[in-house]
Each structure stands twice: as C-alpha cells, then as structure tokens.
Amino acid sequence: MPKIKTKRGAAKRFKITAGGKIKRSHCNKNHILNKKDRKRKRHLRQSDFVDKSDLKNIKKVLPYN
C-alpha cells in the first residue's frame, strides 16, 4: 500500500496539539487593517481550535499527524 501524501497547504495552516485538537489561526489579518479597531486586530492574533464539524476533513488531509 503506498504512502498517502500530506496536503502541504493544510500542513502549513494547521498544527495538532498533544491532546489531539487542531490549532488554526484567524483570517482577516492581512490587509485593510485601518478600518478594523485595535481590539479586533488584537483578538485576531490569537490562535483558535478547529470546529468539531471540520475535524474529519482536516484529519484526512493530514494523514501522519
């Protein structure tokens, strides 16, 4: 049985924690930042966890993690 390739775009976007949860970063932090207030940009800096409904698909594209 051949090895399964990891989707490289997904590998750059998601990290798996020791507890098995998948960490992700927030979107909307790259440009058009002057109309977003300071508090919103500060909260976008922090990472978040992937929703339970998306876990199955993300684990499929990250087979060896």
List keywords for this structure.
65 residues, alpha+beta, 3 strands, 11% strand
Give your account of this protein's structure:
The structure is a single chain. The chain has 65 residues and is α+β, with helices and mostly antiparallel strands. The chain is built from three helices and three strands. The protein has helices spanning 8-13, 38-45, 55-61; strands at 15-16, 22-24, 48-49. The protein has a three-stranded antiparallel β-sheet. The radius of gyration is 15 Å and the shape is elongated. The two termini are 18 Å apart.
Topology:
Blueprint: H1 8-13, E1 15-16, E2 22-24, H2 38-45, E3 48-49, H3 55-61
Antiparallel strand pairs: 1-2, 2-3
What overall geometry do the principal axes of the alpha carbons give? elongated
Oligomer: single chain
Structural class: alpha+beta
Sketch the topology as an H/E string, one letter per element.
HEEHEH
Radius of gyration: 15 Å
Secondary structure: helix percent: 25-40%
- Low-pLDDT stretches: none
Question: How many runs of DSSP E, i.e. beta strands?
Answer: 3
What would the average pLDDT be, to the nearest integer? 95
In short, what is this structure?
The protein is 32% helix and 11% strand. By secondary structure, the protein is of the alpha+beta class.
